[in-house]
Structure formats: structure tokens, C-alpha cells
Amino acid sequence: MFISPKQIPAGLLLALTLVAGAHAQQYPVRPIRVIVPFAPGGPTDIIGRVMAAKLTEALGQQVVIDNRGGAGGNIGMAMAARAANDGYTFLLVSSSLMVNPSLYAKPGFDPIKDFIPITCVAASSNIITAHPSQPFRNAKELVAAVKASPGKFNYASPGAGTTPHLSGELMRLSLGIDIAHIPYTGAGPVVGAVLANQVTTGITAVPPAAPHIKAGSMRGIAVLAPKRSANIPDVPTAIESGVAGIDSDTKQGFLAPAGTPKEIVDRMHREVMKLMQLPDVKDRMATLGFDIVADSQQDFARTVNEEIAKWGKAIRAAKIRVE
Question: Which of 10, 180, 215, 310 is the most buried (most CB within 10 A)?
Fold first, then answer.
């Protein structure tokens, strides 16, 4: 038999409302898992552990990092996409979320349909570097040198399909320059090759290059971002040097499986916003070479769409594919 709300005594209706509200406020009632689709020790993992410790304090429940590396992050992202959407599983991931759908034939997840963007936690700009003996000092001079001697210059990256590699391809294609790609097996070997003057330029994220730039053993040619990096403020951006359209960075995004209740997503967004403003968290991010972003859900969703389109275009134009 159907009972209209008008037939329920006011006191009982109020009690039911309070019970429902109390149930929502009780979240979380058990530990929360944050999947990091990479091995322990990398920047995403380190940032995740900083966040987990602070969220544990704020939520009163243990927040644990679950490292699920492999296939360029696809294994962990696919696992997060299939996880229960009850508010007890989240995903912390790099720009692989936006790159891999175009890079891999079968990534195993859909970055738009399978996830709810919560916030871009932080970002680290990519940077072009060179040995101090190289004749160019900024992006404009580099482009001029490459155009004057096509086929003579190259850039080293941490590997095929990484955002530094795609940054180089974006530069090559958008500027129409003849510069060859030399893939290495990580950022460390790229830095070593630049320091030894074995390559004309290198492209990595800021953190591995920053100590050498500060020491003067490596030259920062251009930060590939709209603004300079706080970690190396003396290095100009490409835009400042008159070269536009090649900005790129490595983002760290926090997401929930599609269908996660809105009130839980909103709660997690508020908690992450608060923890990213804590002085010790700010110091840790700066040490890692990351700039705090902590944007709105809407802004991050827009970024995800824009990055998918940008990297997809670069990947298709460069004919890069990983099976």
C-alpha cells in the first residue's frame, strides 16, 4: 500500500530525515583504497602517500595506496574502472590517463565514461635542457638553430609514448622542424646524456633536471608551461621566448569510478582541497618539483577532454602506437 508523505506524522518524517542524513555523514565506515597504477617510489606514488596520510587523519579511516603497475599504467586504470562505485576506491594517476587511450590499441578503460574527475592535484612541467656548451640559450634560438641545420639536432626522452617524447613530437610537428627523437629508458639516462653532451637536447619533467640546472652543469632552455616553474624560476617558458603551442606537463589527477555518489565525490574534493593547502604538503610538492593545482571538478573534467584531444592529435600525426 502506498503511503503519501502527507500521511506520515511530522515527527516520524523528521526522524527518518535525520537518520538518512546521519547515514551519509558516517562515511567512511571502513578503509579507503587509492589505486596508483605505477610501481612504488615514483612521483605519483609519493604524492599518493602524502595524500593518504592526510586523508586518514581527516576522514578517521585508513586510506591505503594500492600500487598496480604495468602496461604503462593501463592495468591499474582498468582495475579502477571496474571497481565498485561505493566510495571506497579512488584512482590517482598521471597524464597516462589522457595519453594512453590514443597510444595503446586496447588500453582497457575509457577515461571519460569510466571515471568521475575530482581534481588535478598537481602538475610538473616538462622542460627542454641542453649542455652549457650548446650554442642556443632559449626556445627561440633552439628553433632557429634547428631550421638553419636540419637533421643535425636531436632530443632525448625517457621513452616512446612518455609525455616528454610527445612534447618533442608536438614541437617537431607544430613548428615544422627536423629534429630526431632518441628514446632512453627513463629520465635518469636522459639527464646523464645531456650532462655528457651526448645529445643536443633532452626533454624530461622538471624534477630530475632541476638540481643540475641549479648547479650550472645543465642549461634550462625552456619550461613547457604557461608560467615558470617555482623550482627553477630563472628558466624562461617557451612562450616567453616567442615559441607558442608546445606547452606540456605531467599531471597528477584524482578520480572516482563512474557512478560514485555525488556527496562522496564532493566530500573527497573538499578534503583534497584542504590538504593541498597545508604548509608541509606544499613544501613536499615543491621538493618533488610539482606545482599544486587543486582545481574544481569542472575544470579538471575540461582539462581531461582537452588533453585527450591534444595528445591524440600528436600521437596520430607522429604515427606512434603501442600494442
Answer: 310
pTM for the whole structure: 0.80
**Burial bucket for residue 148 (CB in 10 Å: 0-12, 13-18, 19+):** exposed
Q: By three-state DSSP, how is residue 119 classified?
A: strand
13 inside domain: no
In a domain, 62, yes or no: yes
What confidence tens digit (pLDDT) does each residue in 77-130 have? 999 999 999 999 999 999 999 999 999 999 999 999 999 999 999 998 899 999
- Do residues 266 and 26 lie in contact, with contact meaning Cβ atoms separated by under 8 Å? no
117 and 260 part of one domain: yes
Expressed as residue numbers, the domain containing 191 is 125-224
| Distance (Å, whole) CA 39 – CA 35 | 11
DSSP per position, 181-217:
EEE-SSHHHHHHHHHTT-SSEEEEEHHHHHHHHHHTS
| Residue 74 within a domain | yes
Report residue 26 as a C-alpha cell: 558516517
